[in-house]
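User: What would this chain look like folded?
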Amino acid sequence: MSAQKVSRLVLFVTFLIWVIYGFLNGFGQWPLAVAFGLASGLCLVTVVVISRKVTVKLMDLTMVGYFVVAACVTFIARLVSFPYYSPVVIWLMYAAVAWGSVAAGRPFTLQYARESAPPEHWQSTAFWRTNLIISMVWGLAFLINIALVVIALNSKHSSLLLAVIFPLLTLAAAWIFTMCYSGMGRAGREATPRIKSILAERR
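Assistant: Here's the prediction, encoded as structure tokens.
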């Protein structure tokens, strides 16, 4: 199995972990939801490390980091109000990591892009700029989701719509943008050598 397929599988499992966590939490099983998230997150990261097919991504560590915080707050500090504010914490952590990677000049999507792009493109300005823009779009999506869940916490109506449905639609929009924009960038990289060859022949 190629690194790209393994990476997609990891993304799918990550999404599944969040779905099961949300399902358990929605049915009032908060301690079980946190325990499941922490155990499954650690198992996923361990499997990725052992497989050596792909690297552990910043977003994988962000997920595990959240569940570590949630577990400490739930089982050690026993802060009963944390489950109520947990959606804000989740999106806040993802936004912080996304924008932190952008500020550091190492957009987090580079980790995913390098698994599908040839190594000779990794150091190109166009490759970095494409991932910078994509990472910023995801960072914006996370900020929007923070706003949505904050509004949901202070709203008596449509809390499910604001806290769950709209954030999922925001992520879907970011994913569609990623697929379209990365495809455009890949097409541009593939076309550049041909253009240079044609210009060289004309000279």
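Residues 191-200 have pLDDT under 50 and may be disordered. If you want, I can go into more detail on any region.
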